[in-house]
Specification:
Blueprint: E1 6-19, E2 25-32, E3 35-41, E4 46-47, E5 58-64, E6 76-84, E7 90-95, E8 107-109, E9 116-119, E10 133-138, E11 147-149, E12 153-157
Parallel strand pairs: 3-6, 4-6, 8-11, 9-12
Antiparallel strand pairs: 1-2, 1-5, 2-3, 5-6, 7-10, 10-12
């Protein structure tokens, strides 16, 4: 598994504006529970379902926690993955092992026949999930260690 550590930012979109000379990036201002944060959405950012960002939309953005961050206010992070978040839903991004437990042993997935498993291109995914980067959507989790959840959807980043 690659040595990435994905950190989440969840908030409501306040503003979206162009960023940079190439016109392929945007600065997205989010209002989070901890305050205002700016997220850079570049051409390299995986935007789940290619959702068009709009003011008032609730999103979850994930950035590489090991990447350098400029010391400015409001804080500015480069999104690696960004997706729309539904109320009462959690989105997790991590690598999962053979028992479908994430890298820091805080979440274990219990698949059901209703779990929608697709590749990053939206097509059904029928291979092993072990050792792959997964974007997991779920609503409820147990209070055990690790927490256990039955995901609604899993996107496999190939």
């Amino acid at each position: 598994m690659p040595n990435f550590s994905f950190a989440p930012l969840e908030g409501t979109v306040q503003n979206v504006r162009p960023f940079g000379d190439e016109c392929c990036s945007s600065l997205v201002t989010l209002q989070t529970p901890g305050g205002t944060v700016t997220v850079v959405v570049s051409g390299d950012t995986y935007v789940i379902s290619e959702v068009r960002l709009r003011r008032g939309m609730t999103v979850a953005a994930f950035y590489d926690a090991q990447a350098p961050v400029p010391l400015i206010y409001p804080p500015q992070y480069r999104a690696v993955i960004l997706g729309r978040k539904q109320p009462n839903e959690t989105i997790a991004v991590d690598y999962f092992n053979e028992t479908l437990t994430n890298s820091d042993n805080t979440l274990k997935l219990n698949l059901s026949p209703a779990t929608d498993i697709v590749g990053s291109n939206g097509q059904p995914f029928h291979c092993s999930l072990e050792g792959r980067l997964l974007i997991v959507y779920y609503t409820n989790a147990t209070r055990s260690i690790p927490a256990q959840a039955v995901p609604r959807k899993i996107i496999v980043m190939c």
